[in-house]
Design a protein that fits this description.
It contains 13 helices and 15 strands. The protein is of the alpha/beta class. The strands form 4 sheets. A 6-stranded mixed β-sheet has the order 12-11-10-15-13-14, with helices on both faces. Strands 4-3-8-9 form a 4-stranded parallel β-sheet, sandwiched between helices. Helix 1 packs parallel to helix 2 and helix 4 crosses helix 5. The protein is globular and about 55 Å long. The chain starts with 9 loop residues before the first strand and ends with a helix.
């Protein structure tokens, strides 16, 4: 399947196992369900929610929620950029540069930048909760915690909580949307921290890549493995573990099989006891790295599942920071589903109990 955004979306042809190129229906406006949550949140005033650009927000959703978004930096051949939710560069232009061989590097947000954000928070007098990119992928959460402590030491009585979201990319977007809703419903900062620390285990995410090249350049897999995978047309299906780190679920021969593996995991982990989507009010996210054709195909297939016809689906683009490590062609489905801790082995359950983990 091509990842060219100029191709028409695809749905599965009737009576066939192969995707056929036909136009699909337009998605629902991604900000429609976020606007109400954002309005209630802004009226509450008892807790500020801060997020970062690695949550791969659809820009309309971030604006509707009214949260502060911390921009992560990335570097290309023409210098350093700030991830500004695609205001300065389109997703297609960014990933085309990667396809042509340009290398993108990333770095953690500086302590000073976090301090600037948290200083504004302290000055407002309203407690804040920052839902940070997981430590499973970045050390930024540690820097944020240090910065928060510096600001609180300077401003006694201020409250700034930094919480590891444990779910990268657009999974973090879903978590943030519901966190804002819960603040609008009356949770204070301490209660929101407790809510996030439990809720983050219920956000599921499954994705595939077009190639292993970016993972190899980032040192996440050996270069030789990437070369073999490319020659054999092997496509991985990946997810993330309880620490937020990437985990390999399986290897598929070809893109179509990888996409169907994602759908299979969606059905296994998202559908409720009556074989329908667990909560039709909770959105599903589909995020891609300039792979709109496959993203729309996944959406069309999900719409066929019981209870999913009218569920809000957010289409968004993988941010440059995440994209630097996964490369063009990534496509993922994220959703609220089963408790990810249920899949732990007996030995892992014992280890978590020994450590006192929830």
């Amino acid at each position: 399947m091509s990842s060219d955004t100029q191709d028409k979306p695809v749905i599965e042809a009737a009576g066939s196992n192969e995707p056929a190129a036909v136009a699909s229906s337009e998605p629902q406006a991604p900000a429609a369900f976020a606007r109400e949550a954002g309005a209630s949140y802004r009226q509450g005033g008892q807790c500020r929610v801060i997020v970062d650009s690695c949550a791969d927000f659809a820009p309309e959703v971030a604006q509707a929620l009214g949260v502060e978004v911390i921009s992560f930096p990335f570097v290309m051949d023409d210098g350093e950029h700030s991830d500004d939710l695609w205001k300065s560069m389109s997703p297609h232009d960014f990933y085309e540069r990667m396809r042509k061989g340009e290398r993108v590097t990333t770095s953690a947000v500086t302590t000073g930048h976090y301090v600037d954000v948290f200083e504004r928070t302290a000055a407002s007098g309203v407690p804040a909760v920052y839902l940070s990119l997981t430590r499973g992928l970045s050390s930024s959460v540690d820097v944020a915690r240090q910065a928060a402590q510096l600001v609180m030491d300077e401003h006694p009585g201020s409250k700034i909580y930094v919480v590891d979201n444990l779910c990268p990319s657009a999974a973090a977007e879903l978590l943030a949307i519901e966190a804002v809703r819960q603040v609008g419903n009356g949770l204070n900062a301490e209660e929101l921290v407790e809510w996030v620390e439990e809720a983050r285990y219920y956000v599921q995410g499954y994705f595939t890549l077009d190639s292993f090249d970016s993972l190899a350049r980032g040192g996440r897999i050996p270069p030789a493995a990437a070369q073999v995978g490319g020659k054999l047309d092997i496509k991985p299906e990946l997810s993330y573990d309880l620490n937020g780190a990437l985990t390999l679920r399986g290897m598929c021969r070809g893109r179509k099989k990888a996409l169907r593996a994602i759908l299979a995991d969606f059905k296994a982990n998202c559908l409720g006891e009556d074989n329908s989507y667990g909560d039709s009010h909770l959105p599903i996210g589909i995020v891609s790295a300039d792979a709109e054709k496959d993203a729309r195909w996944l959406a069309d297939q999900i719409r066929k599942e019981p209870g999913c016809r009218d569920v809000p689906i957010i289409f968004s683009s993988v941010s440059p920071v995440i994209g630097a490590h996964v490369g063009p062609g990534m496509v993922a489905v994220v959703f609220w589903g089963k408790d990810r801790r249920e899949n732990l082995s007996f030995t892992d359950r014992i280890a978590r109990k020994v450590r006192g983990d929830r």
